Amino acid sequence: MTVRIEAATEATPELRDALAVLLPQLNPSLPIPSLDHLAAVVADPTATLLVARDGPHIVGTAAVVVYTTPIWVKARIEDVVVDQAARGHGVGEALVKACVEVARGRGAGIVELQSARSREAANRLYPRLGFELRDSNVYRLNLR
Q1: What would the pLDDT profile of 78-101 be if each residue is shown by its tens digit?
Q2: H or E stretch covering 67
Q3: What share of the chain is helix, strand, coil (3-state, %, to 5)?
Q4: Which helix (H) or strand (E) is 62 found in, with range?
């Protein structure tokens, strides 16, 4: 498998259709983004949506958001998912490394992510790439 990572530069039906296949593999309850939502993501200067391609096919995706707090320039990696058929070939590693490079290039001093405990392969990958497990609680308030 020869994988290349690229930033999505426009919202296309191909991208939406790929996410419709990939996102349920991450979490079946995730909504599939509309083309309008994807256009907003691609246009957002803080966000970079990366896709992994094997030839012409999108086999994985990840997003990195770089933002400034009063203390840091931070990055957050979100929604890393690799198609079941492409797992075990370094696609997830390539996506995460590309996210880190985007963050570094935009001046981030910290990169954070979170992963469900059940995602065993991901939870082996992240420490191998230098991420440290934090003793922290994640809280969420759903506004919808």
Answers
A1: 999 999 999 999 999 999 999 999
A2: strand 57-68
A3: 35, 25, 40
A4: strand 57-68
Q: So what's the pLDDT on residue 76?
A: 98
**Residue 144: pLDDT above 90?**
no
Give the alpha-carbon dihedral of 115, 64, 125, 28, to 10 degrees.
Answer: 40
**Distance separating the N- and C-terminal Cα atoms of the chain:** 40
β-strand 110-112 against 73-82: which pairing, if any? parallel
Query: What is the longest distance spanned by two Cα atoms in the chain?
Result: 43
pTM exceeds 0.85, yes or no: yes
Helices 35-43, 13-26: crossing angle, 10 deg rounding = 90
- If you ran DSSP here, which 8-state letter would residue 52 be given? E
Residue 137 has phi, psi (to 5 degrees) of -105, 140
Long-range residue pairs from 31-35, CB within 8 A, at least 24 positions apart, any chain: 35/11
We find that the CATH architecture of domain 3-128 is 3-Layer(aba) Sandwich (3.40)
Q: What is the DSSP string of 96-108?
A: HHHHHHHHHHTT-
